[in-house]
Specification:
signal; SurA N-terminal domain-containing protein; 8 helices; globular; Trigger_fact/SurA_dom_sf; 3-stranded antiparallel beta sheet
């Protein structure tokens, strides 16, 4: 499989939380408002939003997923899909909050610049969206927010003078985002898992996104 495609669609695989009930009482759980899947800085991500995205994912996904690790694919039968969706929504809002605080603008041109190589590799927008659903486990409407999140991460690292080829880029990004996350007071509804305040993940899942971003932009 092409390295670029593998790197892209491996990025969010770790967001699925297996054995979700076992994760429900961890750190950073907080208190959420009725009807909320999560609350960040007083802004709600509603249960209805998560459920709508899960429904959209299942409508677009193949019947079955398969594989493991970076070769894992998602299907309508994939467990933990609500946590997968919510995990991305939290991360996207966290990165956007960091950009706002640092007064960094991510333009449509920036987003297109990140998406372009992947679109060229896929051959068409429809094929890219289908690959995204199958290999990331998110609905088609999250494709543009996904590339906006990637562009935002790169912009934050660039302003901080951190190269994406730096082996410590992931840790340095977490250092940048941790005070932002603390200020937002992220609370997650226990039905979706728990927010890990140290690693900035939902349910304590491993999310080596910056390592993958580094691979995408190396050489």
């Amino acid at each position: 499989m092409n390295r670029t495609r593998t790197a892209l669609f491996a990025l969010l695989a770790a967001l699925t939380v297996p054995g979700l009930a076992a994760c429900s009482g961890g750190s950073g759980g907080g208190t959420v408002h009725t009807g909320s899947a999560a609350v960040l800085g007083g802004q709600r991500i509603t249960i209805a939003t998560v459920e709508d995205q899960v429904t959209a994912f299942r409508a677009a996904a193949p019947a079955q997923g398969g594989g493991t690790g970076t070769a894992k694919t998602y299907g309508q039968d994939s467990p933990g899909e609500p946590a997968n969706v919510l995990g991305f929504l939290i991360q996207a809002q966290l990165v956007q909050s960091a950009l706002d605080q640092k007064r960094i603008n991510v333009s449509a041109t920036d987003v297109s610049g990140v998406e372009g190589p992947f679109l060229a590799q896929a051959g068409s927008q429809d094929r890219l969206a289908a690959q995204f659903v199958n290999q990331v486990g998110l609905p088609p409407q999250d494709l543009e927010p996904f590339f906006r999140w990637r562009a935002g991460v790169l912009a934050l690292l660039r302003q901080a003078g951190v190269s994406t080829t730096d082996p410590n880029a992931n840790a340095k990004l977490n250092d940048l985002l941790r005070p932002v996350a603390a200020g937002l007071g992220i609370s997650v509804n226990p039905r979706y898992g728990s927010w890990d305040t140290a690693n900035l993940t939902l349910g304590g899942a491993s999310q080596p996104w910056i390592k993958q971003v580094s691979q995408d932009n190396a050489g």
